[in-house]
Predict the structure.
Amino acid sequence: MYQEDFDNSFSQEKSGDDIYSRPVRAGKRTYFFDVKATKNNDYYLTITESKRKVEKDGRFSYDKHKIFLYKEDFEKFAAGLQEVVQYIKDKCPVQERVYTEPSEEAPRKTDFTDVDFDKL
């Protein structure tokens, strides 16, 4: 996970007191599962998808999508999520992607060809 993604994840949005947070790095995305509390100390969950992107000037920014899930909806949400996840697994088996850094010993794959600029 990108440290600045975690550190700055909610600097723009503060709604409720932060109780617990669990970031999950998944490829180019990070998912945040955050438990927050209302003024009456009632807990709810926010789920945020954050994807880091590079701006034209080279700076990083983040696309974020957030949902709020209230405890009275937990069971229905979990049941619906489990149902559609199982449907997808049954119809189109998921091949888990494993992201690894290339080792120094392994040859690096490049997406370009060797060009002799003197011949251009």
Q: What stands out?
A: The longest helix spans residues 74-91.
